[in-house]
Amino acid sequence: MPVFNRYNSVPASLPDKEFALVKEGDSFRWFIGDKNNLPIPSVGGTTKGKNLTGSTIDMSNIFGNNYNYASPLSADTYAFTGPVINGLSRCFINAPSQPVVTGATWLEDVGDVFVPSVTMEMVMESPNGIAVEYYFLRR
To answer: Which of 54, 66, 106, 132 is the most exposed place for a label (fewest CB within 10 A)?
Structure first.
């Protein structure tokens, strides 16, 4: 049986329908729709290991955008664009001081304590499509 993490999905098809089982937090949610009109971005549309050339994080994918897994970023200030409901992005960072995401809320009680000059994962979430929250995880 597969293990699901937050925002992972299992895509599947029926002759005239497409559906996905998505784990969100502690619960699962089904998305069902016409193959040409599924009410979510492309099923399994995670961007894995894409490298940012700047410091603006795309928040428009509910399955998550993963940035700089091969080469962590070292910026101390980030911005975000395009938040959608349940938008998710993850980015590997290795910064000398704790980064700030302009316009977002740092969830200091979630994740791990930031450690300077150590590769960590910065996780950004948009639960309502407007506000963006972020926290850090040790790698």
So the answer is: 54
